[in-house]
Amino acid sequence: MAKDTSKSSAAAAESEQDAEGVETEAPNKRFGKKFLLIAAAGALVLVLGLGAGAYFLFFSGSGEVHKTKMAGGGPTPLVAPQVAFFDMPDIVVNIQTADGTPAYLKLSVSLELDAADEKPGLQILMPRIVDQFQSYLRELRVDDLRGSAGVMRLKEELLRRINVAAAPYSVRDVLLKEMIVQ
C-alpha cells in the first residue's frame, strides 16, 4: 500500500505540474492576443489621426480667404445682405420674484426682417405681437434672466412667439437693445 500512495502522490504532483503548465501558458496566450488587439487599435488611431491632420493641413484651404480680382486689381466688394430692422416700442412688465417683492423688466428690442417692405405689415400686427410678449414676460422670474444662457433663452422664446404672432411674415432674429431688471 505504501507503494500505491507514493505512486498516487507522484501522479498527483505530475498532474499539478501539468495543470500549472496549462495555467501559465493560457495567460501568456491571452497576453499575446491582448497585446495584438491593443497594438492594432493603437495603429488604427495613429493612422486616423495622421489622416485627419493631413486633411486639415493640406485640403481645408489653409485658412486663406480666396478673393476674386476686379479689373482694377482690388478685391470684389461685398454686397450688403437684404435685411431691414424694425424697432418695437419699449415694453415694461412686472415679473415674479421668489420673495414677492416687486420687480420690473424693461425691454427694448429690434426685429431683423428679410426686407423693408415687411415693416408696414408688422406695424398692423403690432398689438398681437405685444400681447404675445407681455403674456410671456409676465411669467418670467428674475432667476430666468440671469447670465448669458438666460438671455439666449429669452431671445429664442421671443423669436418663436413673434413668428407665431406675425404668421405671414418671417422674423430672422430678435435683437436686444436694452434690458433692465429692477
Walkthrough of the structure:
- The chain is of the alpha+beta class and 182 residues long.
- 53% of the residues lie in helices and 17% in strands.
- Strands 1, 2, 3 and 4 form a four-stranded antiparallel beta sheet that branches.
- It is elongated, with a radius of gyration of 37 Å.
- The relative contact order is 0.11.
- Residues 62-71 have low confidence and may be disordered.
Low-confidence stretches are 62-71
**Structural class category:** alpha+beta
Overall mean confidence score, pLDDT = 81
- Run of helices and strands: HEEEHHHE
- The proportion of strand residues reads 15-25%
How many extended strands?
Answer: 4
Helix content: 40-55%
Number of helices: 4
Biggest sheet descriptor = 4 strands, antiparallel
- Global geometry: elongated
In whole angstroms, the N-to-C terminal distance is 103 Å
Q: Mind telling me the C-alpha Rg?
A: 37 Å
